[in-house]
Write a structure and sequence with these properties.
- The structure holds two protein chains of two kinds.
- Chain A contains 13 helices and no strands.
- Chain A is mainly alpha-helical.
- In chain A, α3 packs across α11, α5 runs antiparallel to α6 and α10 packs antiparallel against α12.
- The radius of gyration of chain A is 23 Å and the shape is globular.
- In chain B, α10 packs antiparallel against α13.
- Chain B is flat and about 85 Å long.
- The N and C termini of chain B lie close together (8 Å).
- Classes of the chains: A mainly alpha, B mainly alpha.
- At the A-B interface, α4, α5, α10, α11 and α12 of A face α1, α5, α6, α11 and α12 of B.
Chain lengths: 319, 304
């Protein structure tokens, strides 16, 4: 191999990732999806709307008399029980679902990395106490934990609302609670992974050298240890986003996720699942949001797998 | 010796876990009597709290609770008024156990062969199709699989009943809904385990001794390659056996998953504590069993 020798491990990993066709394709799909979902509201701008097919420019919350219409030329994905256009609701919902996945994963990243890095870096007694705590949390059913957390927050919100909190403020707080709750139940594995990596790194020569030069703990962890764990963190982060999006769909099914005027893919699915009956089959209410969610998760997983292969030290031996 | 120590260690861990759950539901806002018929006078609420000893300090309540458990009494549910937690678990657990066990068998029965086959034929079309399928089922939530299966097989073709529980026919769709995700996870673990095992020296040795490829795969690769699945099987089984809210709700199955959710929504303190304890016992015991099986399958592993 005529690989240039001056590439950092991260650069080599990036190169390997780009040469992994399925992963690169999935990254492209994901990018297109994000772009479509972000650009969607622009289509209904007055300057653009008249030139586009009418089916593309329905607002997501316009109620109409065309209830539960199957997919057709007017509504490409059909309409829901309130006569709202499903295509626009799916686009709207995908945006919120992606946002929830990203922020929830970010929350779990911050907690998990801080916890794991502290445990691994301190070592000894601190390490065992902190990791036993993680073990105990693993043994608590996360459903109960998250439901108690979110209902407690909702009760608190009701109190704040009657004390004169604006509706917009309440909504932001509720979202923040949802993000926090989702992140709070999914940081455990991240903490374990980071702790394991930090443990192996903390007595390496370059860390000792830096310590001998007088670097403080914060500098050692942030400047020297964590950059070597980035690969693992990014890989696991990509795999956390799908699991948080799945969790959100479950919470929406319980009625604890995104609340009605807003929509996420999960709450659309929950609405569709309510409409199952043996007289008329409203398959589009499940299939389109479900397919969008599955496609997003699939792309994220492919990207995550590709990143992991790219950072896998075993791959280096073959190169 | 190691496993004996782990069993002994389980008791304090269980006490700690149940204490955490016990305290957690009590300290957060909201109480079990919030949704009583309104207006519940403060008088009534005070009597209710006194009846269930909720007016005592938390630690005292917990000691009382532990004392009850020592006598086989998990307390009375605060929401389902004339039922004890033991009753509710005794009714729901058999249903969740049988559905969970079926889904578990399906996940292993479909996932292990799929993962093993795709890894043994790495790079072929079978590998791509199989691996894609494994990833695909991980990415579809039960909230999608369930309704789609119902609409196709129960409403459109009428092969299986739409809902309810009882005959083997009723179990097919819920088992698939619950098991497909885990089958995908198992297949991926098996796939990776096999790929990691194939380059081992003992595999080369076995081939050098003149064994056929099939014998090498089954006798030498499989017991080591299946190890990641074994470690995953513990927590997976604990999750499956305690019921899934989505599946039980979609198919109207009277299992524990519904109680798991409702108890925490209603702040049914005793029921939450009982279910958490049940889950923790299952999880710890199954993890232990998985580790034991691990050491049996891989003679290189020695716990100390």
């Amino acid at each position: 191999m005529n690989k240039p020798e001056n590439l950092s491990p991260n650069q080599q990993a990036w190169r390997r990732f780009r040469h992994n066709r399925p992963a690169a394709a999935a990254a492209l799909v994901l990018a297109l999806l994000v772009l479509a979902v972000l650009a969607w509201p622009l289509l209904s701008r007055p300057g653009l709307a008249p030139r586009l097919p009418a089916a593309l420019t329905h607002p997501p919350d316009a109620v109409s008399d065309a209830q539960c219409q199957p997919p057709g030329p007017g509504h490409w994905f059909g309409t829901d029980v309130h006569g709202r256009d499903l295509l626009s609701r799916v686009c709207h919902g995908a945006r919120l679902s992606l946002l929830i996945g990203l922020i929830g994963a970010a929350v779990s990243l911050v907690i998990g990395v801080l916890w794991g890095a502290t445990a691994g870096y301190c070592g000894g007694r601190w390490d065992s106490v902190m990791m036993r705590f993680v073990d105990v949390l693993y043994a608590l059913p996360s459903i109960i934990f998250v439901i108690v957390l979110i209902t407690a927050l909702n009760a608190f919100l009701d109190k704040m609302k009657s004390a004169g909190l604006s509706a917009a403020g309440a909504q932001w707080l509720q979202w923040a609670g949802l993000f926090g709750g989702l992140g709070a139940v999914s940081w455990l594995t991240m903490a374990r992974i980071v702790r394991g990596q930090v443990l192996t790194l903390r007595h390496r020569a370059f860390v000792d050298a830096s310590r001998a030069l007088g670097a403080g703990h914060a500098r050692l962890v942030l400047r020297h240890i964590l950059p070597n764990v980035y690969g693992v963190i990014i890989v696991y982060l990509t795999l956390t986003i799908p699991s948080i999006m799945l969790y959100e769909s479950f919470l929406s099914y319980l009625g604890l996720g995104i609340q009605p005027p807003q929509a996420s893919l999960g709450s659309l699915l929950a609405g569709g699942a309510e409409q199952i009956n043996s007289i008329r089959v409203y398959w589009w209410l499940i299939v389109y949001p479900g397919a969008t969610l599955a496609l997003t998760l699939l792309a994220l997983n492919f990207v995550g797998d590709g990143l992991r292969d790219a950072w896998d030290p075993r791959a280096e031996k073959g190169a | 010796m190691y496993f004996l120590k782990r069993i002994l260690f389980m008791a304090p861990l269980l006490v700690l876990i149940s204490f955490l759950a016990f305290v957690m539901v009590r300290v957060v806002p909201g109480g079990p009597f919030d949704r009583e018929r309104k207006p519940a006078s403060p008088e009534i609420e005070r009597h209710l709290r006194a009846k269930y000893h909720l007016d005592e300090p938390v630690l005292r309540q917990y000691l009382r609770y532990l004392d009850g458990i020592a006598h086989g009494d998990f307390g009375a549910s605060l929401k389902y008024r004339n039922r004890s937690v033991t009753d509710i678990i005794a009714q729901g657990l058999p249903v969740s156990l049988s559905l969970g066990a079926l889904a578990f068998c399906f996940a292993l029965g479909a996932g292990i062969p799929l993962g093993f086959f795709t890894a043994a034929h790495k790079g072929g079309w079978g590998d791509y199709a199989g691996s894609f399928m494994a990833l695909f089922v991980i990415c579809i939530p039960g909230l999608v699989i369930g309704p789609v299966l119902i609409m196709l097989f129960a409403i459109h073709w009428r092969w299986f009943p739409v809902a309810l529980w009882g005959t083997p026919w009723h179990a097919v769709l819920p088992t698939l809904t619950l098991g497909l995700y885990f089958a995908g996870r198992v297949a991926r673990l098996m796939h990776e385990g096999t790929l990691a095992t194939l380059p081992s020296e003992f595999v080369t040795t076995a081939r050098a001794r003149g064994l056929g490829e099939a014998a090498v795969l089954v006798k030498h690769v499989f017991p080591i390659a299946v190890l990641p699945v074994v470690s995953y099987a513990g927590p997976m089984l604990a999750d499956l056996l305690t019921g899934s809210f989505v599946v039980e709700n979609l198919f109207q199955i009277p299992g524990l998953g519904v109680f798991m959710v409702n108890s925490s929504l209603n702040r049914d303190y005793t029921l939450v504590a009982g279910l958490v304890l049940l889950y923790a016992i299952l999880l710890l015991a199954l993890n232990l069993a998985a580790d034991f099986l691990f050491s049996v399958l891989d003679p290189r592993v020695r716990y100390e």
